[in-house]
Specification:
The complex is a heterodimer. By secondary structure, chain A is of the alpha/beta class. In chain A, 54% of the residues lie in helices and 13% in strands. Chain A has helices at residues 2-22, 38-43, 57-62, 73-84, 88-92, 103-115, 132-153, 159-182, 192-204, 207-222, 248-255, 282-292, 304-317, 332-347, 364-381, and strands at 27-30, 47-50, 95-100, 119-124, 234-241, 259-267, 322-328, 352-357. In chain A, strand 7 (322-328), helix 14 and strand 8 form a beta-alpha-beta unit. Chain A starts with a helix and ends with a helix. By secondary structure, chain B is an alpha/beta fold. Chain B has one domain (2-454). In chain B, 55% of the residues lie in helices and 9% in strands. The longest helix of chain B has 27 residues, at 202-228. Chain B is globular, with a radius of gyration of 21 Å. Classes of the chains: A alpha/beta, B alpha/beta. Chains A and B meet through helix 6, strand 4, helix 7 and helix 14 of A and helix 9, helix 10, helix 16, helix 17 and helix 18 of B.
Chain lengths: 382, 460
């Protein structure tokens, strides 16, 4: 029921946004990674859209005319989507707030800046997340972003509006977290594919509508009882990126009899474990929430241990018996970290499978075989 | 060995005194008699070792390698390696000038010259890193980072007390340090800035990036002070910067002379040596040797220019190369010369003007952020186009370092912009600037030959 309502909303969303544009509403694109506070964009009266399409080799290949193959397929897909002009979301944005996270997404912003047909705001993300002047820098940049958005939209961004937006997005994160926590049951009441799609929808849907949908889904799930005990191995998905449309691995795991019950993904999944403090200096609150009070992505300094500790906590909390590390080809930081994670998981007798993808379809058979074999191994261990 | 050391600029007396150390270090690195023989051949083939100035640079590189390998057993109490750390050459110089118990160096550069360029033996170091987390293959990890990691995990150099890198140019180096910390327990420190400068506010944005870097560098020196046990003052840094002034001028003079000469007076592979020389963390006592090397080379090159002597024909096509010359393998630059192409400069010397003159050494160190390799694509393009016009080049060779996303991502659009704006050909060469295994002689020969025919021929 709610799924149908959400599907209809997403189907109509491009047309809705096109209408809004005619009325002067600005559409502001961002990139995933959860370093751009959508709250500020929302408070400006503009519509935030987190561009997170991927999984399709066609746009990633199209980008090879402007970016070498050493860039990850997700970064290339962003370039390709705009080059191909087939995805309405990528064509309708009036401005990009580009988080300067890894070199891959930074280069996408630079390429679009060079093209010159889009307003670009580069939001510097200090790569040391727990330093004093880094926090100050990020806070300052958020204030500059506010000024830029005010000028761009012609709307004043008041503290009241920011507070309202924080409350709205806090509610969205809280609901996603609650739904995620329900997945601790066995069998999980929500499949990984459904949860990831729901999470992805939150990047494109109207946020008020999305909160309403999430609330209904949560209410429906929380009283639901499990009908049987599952024997599927409970797995965790780790890695840099699961984009909108990149569902092959999720589907293959399900088909092979495994059950991904939790994801720890930097890009593509909306981060929902934190709450932004909605009092005091709200820009400092946002800066702290988006930079400090969260699990750092792999491009951050001293992040490997913190990410490992969080992953191990999830293993325990979600009763996980195996880990699938899913990385995109040419993502050098996550590729390096996979060695460390494999080493640490092995020390704890937690099986870990490392998969790579270039969004190509040719390697699906190989992925299937490897996933099936891995699930057999996990079954054997448990 | 003695013949090799003479080619590397060692005097007889010094050879007698230093030979046991050098042999010990070379043995530790697995350098064999065959390697020594190959080293002599490569030095004669690829470098202008008939110039005393060039030999003097090789001498300093060999000394650096030997000192690194033997640092612990020669009594260094604290060992700090920097990597991809612009400005570390100044802080490191200050450290070694202050205390003889500290060894501080940019780890990979001198090893790439000696093991890579001279002996052709860098691959085992790269393979050591590939057995860890910088695996070979399509992921395309940077071989510079591999060299750094390989030297440490193969125990070719002593385990350090601290590792330093910057994060403003890549993520692979900081990530490798992060993992060295987690898996080997080595203390690490990274200094950063945010690369969020926009084309429209370039100068203001540069100030923002430089200020952030300066703060981060100050925090770095606080961490270093804890390790070495003494204060690093602004005066110490300023003294080193003043002492290095002669070196900077010497290198700049050589590069200007080469840029403005026809025929090209020196083989292009030598260009890498000036970059390395600039990166050595020499003490104030040792800096005169480096300055002497540049002054000697300049005088020798001026003599060649005055006599009209060159390594390619007068009127040969002049090209600007993107990035430094190959750090561990001189063959591509040598091939270009053999084909009659004059690589007159690289883009590393091109910088965005900035009027933020300062007394603060940390701000001054952070000025590297104005350079071509540290700017964003929309600012780098006009910088290079202006450079092409000033240097009056006939073409651009963009041997883009595939292991570095920072620079490789610029290549296709740089080519597009240069060809549109000044109408000269650009050859894109997917490249690894630190891994000799990338070299494909026949392919590069064919492509460079075609490239040459595309360039406008100038009357001799």
């Amino acid at each position: 029921m709610e799924e149908n309502r959400l599907a209809a909303h997403l189907r109509d969303r491009p047309a809705q946004l096109a209408e809004a544009k005619k009325d002067g509403v600005k559409i502001i694109g961002t990139f995933p990674g959860n370093y751009v506070p959508e709250e500020i964009i929302y408070a400006s009266g503009a519509v935030p859209l987190c561009l997170t399409h991927g999984g399709n080799p066609h746009p990633a290949d199209a980008a090879l005319s402007v970016l070498p193959h050493v860039f990850c397929p997700f970064a290339r897909a962003q370039i390709g989507e705009r080059l191909l002009k087939e995805n309405p979301y990528y064509s309708m944005i009036d401005m990009l707030v580009a988080p300067i996270t890894c070199q891959h997404l930074k280069k996408v912003a630079e390429v679009w800046e060079y093209d010159g047909d889009l307003e670009i705001f580069k939001l510097g993300i200090p790569h040391k997340f727990d330093g004093d002047f880094e926090l100050e820098y990020f806070t300052d940049r958020l204030r500059v972003l506010k000024d830029r958005l005010q000028a761009f939209t012609g709307n004043e961004i008041t503290d009241e509006k920011i507070a309202g937006a924080i409350a709205l997005y806090n509610r969205m994160r809280e609901l996603l977290k609650n739904i995620s926590l329900i997945r601790r049951t066995s069998p999980s009441l929500v499949s990984a594919l459904d949860f990831v799609k729901l999470n992805h929808a939150s990047f494109y849907a109207d946020p008020d509508f999305m909160v309403d949908v999430l609330d209904s889904i949560y209410q429906e799930l929380k009283d639901k009882q499990q009908e049987s005990k599952a024997d599927s191995p409970r797995l965790m998905l780790l890695g840099p990126n699961i984009s909108y449309g990149d569902y092959t691995v999720l589907e293959l795991v399900k088909t092979a009899g495994g059950e991904i019950v939790i994801e720890e993904i930097c890009e593509g999944i909306r981060y929902y474990w934190h709450t932004i403090e909605n009092k005091g200096d709200l820009y400092q609150s946002l800066a702290r929430g988006y930079l400090v009070d969260r699990v750092p992505c792999a491009f951050m300094r001293d992040s490997a241990k913190k990410r490992l500790d969080f992953a191990l906590k999830l293993v325990k909390d979600f009763n996980v018996s195996g880990v699938i590390w899913y990385e995109l080809l040419c993502c050098e930081t996550y590729d390096s970290e996979s060695y460390y994670f494999a080493h640490e998981m092995s020390e704890r007798n937690i099986p870990m499978l490392i998969l790579e993808s270039d969004y190509g379809t040719a390697d699906t058979g190989q992925l299937k075989t490897r996933i099936e074999a891995f699930i057999e191994i996990v079954k054997g261990v448990t | 060995m003695i013949e090799l050391l003479e080619l590397c600029g060692f005097e007889k007396q010094e050879i007698e005194a230093e030979l046991p150390r050098i042999e010990k270090a070379f043995n530790r690195l697995g350098i064999t008699t065959e390697d020594i023989e190959r080293g002599k051949q490569r030095l004669n083939k690829y470098y202008d070792v008939e110039l005393k100035g060039i030999r003097k640079v090789f001498r300093l590189c060999v000394r650096e390698v030997v000192s690194a390998v033997l640092a612990r057993e020669e009594g260094k109490k604290k060992i700090i390696y920097g990597f991809m750390a612009p400005g570390w050459e100044i802080i490191g110089s200050a450290l070694v000038s202050k205390s003889s118990e500290v060894y501080a160096a940019n780890l990979s550069w001198a090893f790439q010259v000696v093991l890579g360029c001279v002996f052709g033996k860098i691959v085992p170091i790269l393979e050591a890193a590939e057995k860890k987390w910088l695996k070979a293959g399509v992921v395309t990890h940077c071989a510079n980072v591999k060299t750094f990691l390989g030297l440490i995990v193969s125990e070719s150099v002593p385990r350090p007390d601290m590792l330093i890198t910057s994060g403003s140019l890549c993520e692979t180096a900081p990530k490798t340090l992060d993992l060295l910390h987690e898996l080997y327990g080595i203390p690490v420190c990274c200094y950063d800035t945010c690369q969020d400068r926009e084309l429209s506010d370039y100068l203001d944005g540069t100030k923002r990036a430089i200020d952030m870097s300066a703060k981060s560098l100050r925090r770095l020196t606080e961490r270093i002070q804890e390790v070495v046990g003494f204060e690093i003052t602004n005066d110490m840094l300023r003294e080193v910067m003043d002492a290095r002034g002669g070196l900077d001028r010497g290198i700049r003079n050589i590069r200007r002379l080469i840029e403005n000469s026809d025929p090209l007076p020196i083989r292009a592979a030598n260009d890498n040596l000036w970059t390395i020389l600039n990166m050595l963390t020499l003490s104030i006592d040792d800096l005169p040797d480096a300055i002497d090397a540049t002054n000697t080379a300049y005088a020798e090159l001026q003599e060649r220019v005055d006599k009209g002597l060159g390594v390619v024909e007068k009127g040969a096509p002049r090209i600007l190369a993107m990035l430094f010359a190959q750090h561990a393998d001189p063959r591509l630059e040598h091939l270009a010369g053999e084909l009659g192409i004059a690589i007159v400069a690289s883009d590393i010397g091109l910088a965005v003007p900035y009027d933020g003159a300062t007394e603060d050494p940390y701000v001054e160190i952070s000025m590297y952020l104005r350079g071509s390799l540290s700017t964003s694509l929309p600012r780098r393009i006009p910088l290079i186009v202006e450079g092409c016009k000033r240097l009056k080049v006939d073409g651009v060779l963009d041997r883009f370092h595939a292991g570095c996303r920072f620079v490789s991502g610029d290549a296709p659009l740089l080519k597009d912009a240069i060809e549109k704006e000044i109408g000269i050909p650009v050859l894109l060469l997917e490249w690894e600037n630190f891994d000799p295994r990338i070299y494909k002689h026949e392919e590069y020969k064919r492509r460079l030959e075609v490239f040459k025919t595309m360039m406008v021929k100038k009357p001799a």
